[in-house]
Amino acid sequence: MAAGRKSLWRQLTWPWSPDSEREASEAVVRNLWLHWFPAKVSIRSLSWGYSFWLGTVAASLFVILTVTGVMLMFFYVPSVERAYGSVKDLQYAVSFGRILRNQHRWAAEGMVALAFIHMARVFFTAAYRGSRALNWLVGVVLLLGTLMLSFTGYLLPWDQLAYWAITVGTNIASQAPVLGPTIHYLLLGGHFVGQQTLLRFYVLHVFFLPALVWILFAYHMWRVRKDGGLAGLEPVRAMRRAEPKEMPRTKSYSLFGLTPGTSVAVMSSMGLEERDQVMSSPNLTRRMILVFLIVFNVTLVLALLFNAPLEGPANPSVTPNPAKAPWYFVWLQELVASTTIHIGSLTISGGLLGGIVVPGVLLAALVAWPFLDRSPEAAQGVWFARSRARQNLVFALITLAIIVLIVVGLYLRGPYWRLYWPWTARPVMPRVL
Amino acid sequence: MEERQQDSLERQDFAWLVIMSLLFFALVAAALWSEYATAWRPFQTRFKRDLAQAGRLEDARKFHSGIKQIWNPELGLVDRCVTCHLSYEWGGILPASLPQPLTPHPALPFMQHHPFERFGCTTCHAGQGWATTARGAHLGGAGWEEPMLSKRLAASCGVGEDELIQMRCNFCHRRDSSTQGMDDINLAKKLFKKKKCIICHTVEGQGGHTAPDLTFEGDKNPELFDFSHVSGPKTAFNWHVQHLIDAGKVSPGTAMPDFHFPPEQARALALLILSWRRIDYPPQYIPAPVAPPAAQPVSSSQPSPFH
Amino acid sequence: MDSDRRKVLRWLGKGSVFAAFVAQIGAAARAFFPNVLYEPPTTFKLKPPNIYPQGYTFDAEHRLFVIRAAAKFHVISAVCTHLGCTVQWRGTEFDCPCHGSRFDPNGNVIAGPAPRPLPWFEVSVSPDGLLEVDSLSTVPEGSVLTVPTEKT
Asked: Which pLDDT does position B92 carry in this prediction?
């Protein structure tokens, strides 16, 4: 290419908006920021309707969380004396602090939701088959990492909700057989939620967990490519394989026009044909920027309109009534509150059953599912394949059960965790004045 | 073929990209605007104008717009109330008739010992000093347990605003036998002595043990009161008032006599009881106990000069 | 010979690096189990027994109830045995605000997820005449401390 005649600006930006087909095919390898994309991308994986771009949405949220989080680190003080005040400062006194914290909070809740919905998409399209099983496992770890980031971030404001959510959460960990008390001591750095706990959760929240999620995210993306792109391409590949090949033996579509025989471009290793693919730059990059813009706009609208909750300062001697976990954990709270069972003289605490065994079983099922799924190959990359109807139903029912528990916990539980229908009056909690 | 697909992809996305980019710009502009268009800004403009009108041109010129706060780390006090209530210490210069939030603070006799720069606003008035919005500062918001002691709150308790504030004065002045300006609390202290409450109750290590220790009764979680025999609002204050009037009705089977205090005396006593709180002020903020008069004229049955 | 010695040395070298590495990880992990705690002691003194009124007195600082019947005392923990929230005495029963556990006046579970009754702590009178509680030592339900010289 004639780089010499281009302006400096153009020399830097041409890969993002290539002028010609040839520039487009070179763009990806010539640019650091684009080099992790394939040179060409299938039209199917660009479609809105197959993937809904849920992974990109979750990744966009994580980018927003990283940037807002690093900004918040300049203002937040991880000490039991100062933490609450520094969050109040963010809310009321730091320029744009309120928007920054709100956006971080709403993006965090969004990422929990999106990571799960993305997983549901992958499940319903059976996109975890074959070599993709490994990436499914990576995804499960990423979901856990996201939940742990939410949980650790939750403690940092050091308000009532934070203090009691962490008390309950770490007590669930202490119900684990044999190692429970050790884990509890390790998490809290003592027997009570205190300065050590805050510092531990802070370091986990701002360094270890984000680092883990970033590294696994990079690996997750890399694996998508190594596994041949989205599973949604498999039906296209199958179709192409079934088509009768009538290829001119002499003609070549290769880049340099030198390849003899059947063109590699025609029967690429992707198993796709020219007509199934377009150049990544600008078609993929354009759509990614669009998705990011949409996500950013949504979080910013939420941040402008709704303030992130903040309760009174942590008070170890008064438990809020009721003390509710954040929505994405409230189903676990429902479970621990209702799964204590008595078998003769033996009592198994809900903390163990609902807090460890049930989530543990669900997690084990997620891990094992790709290896247990015996549905035919053709189900891969197809939404709601009929051959997988039964498994999809199981997944949907578990999801529904979780949603029902969340709704019950959030809207139907009143003081002392009693059930109140929306139309029954709840007791007014007494105040001082 | 590919050309056409690329064109169609671009066509699909182009409009959305434009819309989202414009929205992006609009939202960032909105964020900037929301940061600029704060509720307090107009008050600061008006304050500057009022200063100029009062002839204080130099002060008006030197006034810089922005969040103002009174900070006293000894009390853990951060009071941003003065971001809006700017004329608080301009009572001598600006007219007292200015509408809120710019009404100057009246020069009350005790103010010279309780200067703004040390005690701020929330020490007496409660409310959320961190806040820079009227709602956040006055109502406190979810979980903030110290709403501002407003006229409305006082009216809901059947007392005056200044009576409620006396309760907070007594956080520090609890050991005074009587304090100038704290008429209701003084009355309550007198009644407390006269009715010999400490025969049964203990306060600060002194008294009997047949009834609960009241030393930090003001800290008690209001959820722990039994409201099943209490009419009216479910507040610790109301519980104490009714309990002081008719203990047997509020807590059946209690050993506490029914004193049948007149309501205003019961309210004063309730405020006194609620003022007994654990505070972490440094010792220099706790007033030296007023030397007890040599011959103690207290506990005589002279009628209260108040009410 | 030579190559054998090399093999051994190589194995020794790799092994020692690996062992040192594992030991370092262990050492680092050990640091996360604090040796000293800035926490209240597990055995503590309350007030003199005669101070407590009849019935249930909540001690917010130590999260327990002192229960007195004439000269008999016992102490029940206010920490819910389910997941550690503070239970409230509501006149006839203890209720937990977090997950709805309910306990009878002796701390036995009536309803809700709590797996065990609220423990009774061992209580004694210290040499200086105060109630003393050992929160690591529980006593069976019904064990009460009688403070003999009590007059109220």
From this structure: 84
d(CA C121, CA C114): 18
Q: What does the pLDDT read at residue A114?
A: 96
Reference A405, options A338, A315, A308; nearest CA is: A338
Residue B179 has pLDDT above 90, yes or no: no
Taking contacts as CB-CB distances below 8 angstroms, the residues of chain B near C51 are 202, 209, 213
Segment A320-347 mean pLDDT: 84
- Which residue matches tokens 């914290």? A101
**pLDDT score for B305:** 38
Give the separation between CA B277 and CA B155, rounded to whole angstroms.
23
Structure tokens at B94: 């600006």
Q: Are residues C24 and C53 in the same domain?
A: no
Distance from C-alpha of B227 to C-alpha of B251, rounded to nearest angstrom:
9
CB contact (8 A) between residue C99 and residue A194: no
Chains touching A by CB (3 or more pairs below 8 Å)? B, C
* Domains along the sequence of chain A with CATH: 37-242+268-417 (1.20.810.10)
Q: Is residue C28 included in any domain, yes or no?
A: yes
Dihedral in degrees, nearest 10, Cα atoms A47, A52, A58, A61: 80
When CB atoms are compared, the residue of B210, B223, B224 closest to C53 is B210
- Euclidean distance between CA atoms A277 and A354, whole angstroms: 48
Residue B81, CB-side half-sphere exposure with 13 Å CA sphere? 31
Per the listing, tokens 């050309």 go with B3
Give the model confidence (pLDDT) of A73-100 as tens digits: 999 999 999 999 999 999 999 999 999 9
Same domain, C79 and C102: yes
C23: containing domain: 1-38
Residues B279 and B167: beta-carbon distance below 8 Å? no
User: Is residue A253 very low, low, confident or very high in pLDDT (cuts 50, 70, 90)?
Assistant: low
Tens of pLDDT, residue by residue over B221-238, are 888 888 888 888 888 999
Q: How far apart are CA A373 and CA B171, in angstroms?
A: 68
Given the cut 0.90, state whether the ipTM is greater than it: no
Total domains, chain C: 2
Q: What share of chain C is helix, strand, coil (3-state, %, to 5)?
A: 20, 30, 45
Residue A39: pLDDT over 80? yes
Antiparallel, parallel or unpaired: β C64-69 and C55-59: antiparallel
Kindly report the nearest CA distance between residue B264 and chain A, in angstroms: 16
**Domain residues for B55?**
40-138
Q: What is the pLDDT of residues C55-83, one digit of tens each?
A: 888 988 889 999 988 888 999 999 998 88
Write down the pLDDT at residue B144.
58
C neighbours by CB contacts (3+ pairs under 8 Å): A, B
Per the structure, the count of domains in chain B is: 2
**pLDDT score for B299:** 45
Please check whether residue A129 is in contact with residue A370, taking contact to mean a CB–CB distance below 8 angstroms. Answer: yes
Q: What does the pLDDT look like over B187-204, one tens digit per residue? A: 999 999 988 888 888 888
Can you read off the two tokens belonging to residue B33?
């605007």
Chain A residues with CB-CB distance to C100 below 8 A: 337, 416-418
- CB burial string A151-182: b at 16+ within 10 A, e below: bbbbbbbbbbbbbbbbbbbbbbbbbbeeebee
Strand partners, B71: B78
Burial of C112 (0-12, 13-18, 19+ CB in 10 A): buried
The amino acid at B158: G
pTM: 0.89
pLDDT for C40 beyond 90: no
**What is the distance between the alpha carbons of residues A345 and C50, in angstroms, rounded to a whole number?**
39
B210 contacts C88? CB cut-off 8 A: no
Q: Do A93 and B21 touch (CB under 8 A)?
A: no
- Asked if the model's pLDDT at residue B307 lies above 90, the reply is no
Displacement of CA A387 from its chain's centroid (Å): 28
Q: HEC profile for A82-95?
A: CHHHHHHHHHHCCC
- The reply to whether B304 falls in a domain is no
